[in-house]
Amino acid sequence: MSPVYYLYLAALLFTIGAAGVLIRRNAIVVFMCIELMLNACNLAFVTFSRMHGNLDGQIIAFFTMVVAAAEVVVGLAIIVTIFRTRHTASVDDASLMKL
Amino acid sequence: MENLIALLVAAPLVGAALLLCGGKRLDRTGHWIGSLLAVASFAVGVALFADMLGKSAGHRALHQHLFSWIPVGGFRADVAFQLDQLSMTFVLLITGVGSLIHIYSIGYMEHDERRRRFFGYLNLFLAAMLLLVLADNYLLLYVGWEGVGLASYLLIGFWQHKPSAATAAKKAFLVNRVGDMGLSIAIMLMFTTFGTFAFGPVLASTGDTSEGKLTAIGLMLLLAACGKSAQVPLQSWLGDAMEGPTPVSALIHAATMVTAGVYLITRSGAIFNAAPDAQTAVVAVGAVTLLFGAIVGCAKDDIKKALAGSTMSQIGYMILAAGLGPIGYAFAIMHLVTHGFFKAGLFLGAGSVMHGMNDEVDMRRYGGLRKYMPVTFITFGLGYLAIIGFPGLSGFFSKDKIIEAAFAKGGTEGWILGGAALLGAAITAFYMTRVMLMTFFGEKRWDPSEVHPHESPKVMTIPMIVLAVGSVFAGGLFSVNEAFVKWLEPVTSFAHGHSPVSATVVTASTIVVLLIGVGIAWLMYGRKPVPSLAPRGSLLTRAARRDLLQDDFNHIVFVRGGDHVTRTLVQLDRSLVDGAVNGTAASMGGLSGLLRQLQSGFVRSYAVQMLGGAAVLVAATLLMRGV
Amino acid sequence: MTGLAAAASVTSSGEAVQFWILGIVAVVGALCTILMKRAVHSALSLAGTMIVLAVFYLANGAYFLGVVQIVVYTGAIMMLFLFVVMLVGVTAADSLKETLKGQRWLAAGLGIGFGILLIAGIGNASLKEFNGLGEANAGGNVQGLAALIFTKYVFAFEITGALLITAAVGAMVLTHRERTERAKSQREQSEARIREGKQVPPLPAPGVYARHNAVDIPGLLPDGTPSELSVNPTLRERGQIRDVSGESLAELKALEQRSEEWLGRSAEDEPKPPASGGAAPKEHKEGAKK
C-alpha cells in the first residue's frame, strides 16, 4: 500500500465535512463538520511530511491544531451567546433578510 | 473736434440715466431735461457738421478712441467712434428729427402720468442709435443695435396695460432677435475671416477674401437688416409696433431705427460689392418688400398701419438702392433722409389727428378734417406730396433717382427692378391719396356729439411745420449740383449707372404712374363717399388687410413647425434618451433582482457558493497543470 | 499500487490492513457525524473519527501529533463540544428535513464534484515514491519538531500564542455578562410578586416519586394532570418534560384496587376523592398558561 491512500482518505473526509457544513442547520454540528475538514487536512499534511521525509508538514498540522483550538473556543462562545438571546442554535434562523 | 463725438452719445445717455433713475422728483421737469439734452446733442452734431464742411472732402473723417473694451490676446474690441460723412448724415437726421419729436411729445404725452419714463426711453433710444451709427467697429455697432432694439421694445410696449401693446412689443423683440442672430453670426464670421471687426481693416481687406465667405457674411448682414428694417421675411413686427405712442412710431418706426438696416448695408458696401450673390439677394428683398408694403398699405383702414405699410415699402426702396452697389448707395441714403423728414411729418400729422379725435385710428371714422385742423392738414399734405414724388418735392428727387438706378442695373434684372420700382411708385401714390382723401376730404363720418376735432397745440404743430419744410426742400437742396452724392462719395463711392432708358423718360414715366395712382384713388375714394364699415373687398384686399397673411404664414411654418419639432424631440427624448436611461436602470434592477436571490441571508447558501468557487478553483488549477 | 515499485513506495502490509479497517471506521464516523439527528451522537462519532486519525498519525511517524490529537482534540475540544451540546440541549433532535430549496441537491452535487476533483488531482500527481521519516525522526520525533518550532517557525509559534490568548479573552468577553443592577432581595421579590398578582405563593414542587426522582417530572394536580409550573422553565422550553401522569394514575388505581380487595370492600362504597381540593392547583395551571 502506498501512503497516497491516506491522501485519498483525507480528500474523502474533507468532502464529507464540506457536505455536512452545507446540509446541517445546527450550528454546533456545522462546527463539528468544520473540525472534520481541518482534521482531514491535518492527515494530508502528516502524509506529505512522511512522503517528503521532513517534519515541516507536521509543524503545519500542529499549528492547524492550535488555530483550530482557538477557533473552537471563540466559535462555541458565539454559539452560546446566540443561543442565550435567540434560544436556538440553527444557522438558518440567523437570517434576517427579507426575500 | 473729435473729442466732441463722445458728447453726442453722452448727452442723451445722461438724460436717460437721469430720467430713469431720477424718480418722481423729476416728473415735472423730466420732459424738458430730455428734450434739452436731445437738442444739445443736435447742437453738437451741427457744430461737428460745420467743422466737417470746412475741411476738404478726403479729410473729413474723424476718429475718437475712448478705451479698449475687451483686450484679450488676439481678440481686441475697442470703444471707438468714427465720424465720417455717412455717420454725420445719420447724426443730423437722428438728433434733428429726434429733437423735434421730443418737443412734439411734450404736447402729445402731456396727460400721460408716465411721461418722464417715456422721455427717458426716448433718450435711451437716441443714445443707442447714435452709438450704432458712430461705432467704428461691428461689435460696438452691435451694442447700439441691441440698444435700439431694447428701446424699441420698451416704447412699443409703453402702454403695457393694453395687452395688444405688450404682445406687439414681445413680437417685435422676438422677430428682431432673428435678425440680431444674423448680425452676431456675421460678426463671428468676420472675426474668423479677418481676425478683427473694425470697419477699416475689414472693409479694406475684402479683396483678399474668398467670395464664398463674403457672400455668407453678406447674407447674414442682410438677415440682420431684414430684422431691424422690417423687410420680407422679417417684416411682420412693424405693423403691430404701431401700438406704441405715435411719436415713437414717427421717430423709431419711420425715421430712424428701421433705417438701421440700410445703414448697415451701406456701411458694409465693400463686402456686398465683392459678393454679387449677396447683392442680388438684397435687391430681391428690397423689390419684394417695396411691393409688399405698398399692397398692405392700400388695404389698411388704421391710419398708422397704412403709414407703417408705407414705411416698409419706402425702406424697400432704400434696400433696393443699397443693393444696387455704388450706383445706388448715395440715393439710398438720400431717400432715407428725405423719407425721415416726410414720414416723420406724416406720422406726427397722424398723431395730431388722433390727438384731436380721441385717439381714433380708423380712417373710416375720419373725413372732412381739413377744416378743423388746418395746420395738420397742410403739413400732412406737404408730406403726402413729398412721399408720392410730386415733382419738385423731396420724394420726387430721391425716388426718381432710385428708379433710374434700378433701370441702370442693366439687363433683364434692371428691367424687372425698374418695373417693380415704378409699380411701387404708382401704388404709393394710390394708397397715400387714399389716406389723404379718407382723412381730410369727403363727408364727416364721425359723431359730432362725441368727437370734437381741434387743432393741436403749438408745441406739436411747430415740429410738424419744420418737418414739412424739410419734406419740401430737402430733396431739391440735396440734388443741386449733386451735392449729396458728392458729400457721400468718399465713404460710399459712387458710379454713374448706364440706364437703357434716358433719365427724362424715367422721370416722365414716374410722373405718369403717379398721376395714374392718384387718379384711381380719387375715383375710388374721392368721387364717391367712403363707407363707414369696410366692404368685404376682393381676395387680395382681404389678404392685404391681414398683412398678406404674414402672421398666418409664420404661425403655420414656424409656430406649428416649431411645435411639431419640439413634440418630436420630446418624443425622442422620452423614447430614446429616457428609454436608454430607464432601460439601463430597469435592466440593472432586473439583474439585481436575479443576483438578490443569491443573497438570501442563509449562511448555508453562502457556504454552497463558497464550495462552488473552491471547486472551480481546483478545477482551474488541475486544468492549468494538465495543459 | 503496483508491487513492482521500489521498496520506498510500499508500506508494510500490517499498516495496509490497519488502514483499510480503520479507514472504513473513519469514513463511517464522518458520515455519522453529518447524518445523526442528535448533536451528541454527531459529537461522539466525530470523536471516534478523530481517534482513528490519531492512529493514522502515529502510523505516519507523527508520534507527537498522534498523542496531541488524542489529548487536545478528542480530549479537550470534543469535550468542549459536548459541554456546549449539553448546555444547548442534549436531547433536542434536529430535523434533517431540508428547508432551503435545492440546497441538498446542490450540496450533494458540489460535494461529489469537489471530491472527484480532489481525488483526481491526487491520482494525477506522480506520488509513486516516498522518503519515509526514518531520517527525520532519527533524533526522536518530539525533538525534531521542537527544533523546528523553536528555530524555523519560532515567529509563527509566538503568534499562535498571541492568538490563543486573544481567543481565550474573546470567549470570556462573549460569554460573560456583567450584572448591571443590584440583585433583588427576597423581600423585594415577594413584594413584586404580590404587586403583579400572578403567582403569589411559591411554585409547586416537581413531582418526586419513588421511581422518578428527577426534576423533569412535573407534579400532578389533584385531577391527575401534570402541572407544568412545577418544572424548571428551561426544561419546559426545550420540551423535555417527562409526563408520567398516565402511568402514575394507573399505578394509584391499581394500588387502591389491591387495598380494597385486601380490605374486602367494594369500589362503589368508597367515597369519591374530595373535589374541593383541586381548586387551588388548577389555578396554578392556568397561571402557567398565561
Name the helicity range of chain C: 55-70%
CATH topology of the domain at 12-92 in chain C: Four Helix Bundle (Hemerythrin (Met), subunit A)
Mean pLDDT across every amino acid position of chain A: 88
**What is the name of the CATH class of the domain at 12-92 in chain C?**
Mainly Alpha
Rg on CA atoms of chain A, Å: 17 Å
User: Any idea what the shape of chain A is?
Assistant: elongated
How much beta of chain C, percentage-wise? under 5%
Number of discrete domains of chain A: 1
Shape of chain C: elongated
**Neighbour order of strands in the largest sheet of chain C:** 1-2
Largest interface, counted by CB within 8 Å of the partner chain's CB: A-C, 69 and 91 residues
Query: Which oligomeric state applies?
Result: heterotrimer
Q: CATH superfamily name of the domain at 12-92 in chain C?
A: NADH-ubiquinone/plastoquinone oxidoreductase chain 6, subunit NuoJ
> Biggest sheet of chain A, open or closed, and with what strands and sense?
none
Describe the protein's architecture and organization.
The complex is a heterotrimer of chains A (99), B (627) and C (290). Chain A has 99 residues and is mostly helical. Chain A has a single domain, classed as Orthogonal Bundle (Helix Hairpins). Chain A is 78% helix and 0% strand. Chain A is built from three helices and no strands. Chain B has 627 residues and is mostly helical. Chain B folds into two domains: 422 residues, no CATH class; 72 residues, no CATH class. Chain B has 24 helices and two strands. Chain B has a two-stranded antiparallel sheet with strand order 1-2. Chain B is globular, with a radius of gyration of 31 Å. The mean pLDDT of chain B is 90. In chain C, a hairpin with a 5-residue loop joins strand 1 and strand 2. Chain C has 290 residues and is mainly alpha-helical. The termini of chain C are far apart. Among the domains of chain C are: 81 residues, NADH-ubiquinone/plastoquinone oxidoreductase chain 6, subunit NuoJ (Four Helix Bundle (Hemerythrin (Met), subunit A), Up-down Bundle); 43 residues, no CATH class. Chains in contact: A-B, A-C, B-C. The interface between B and C is medium-sized, with 15 and 13 residues. Chain C: It is a multi-pass membrane protein. Chain C: It holds the Pfam family Oxidored_q3. Chain C: Belongs to the complex I subunit 6 family.
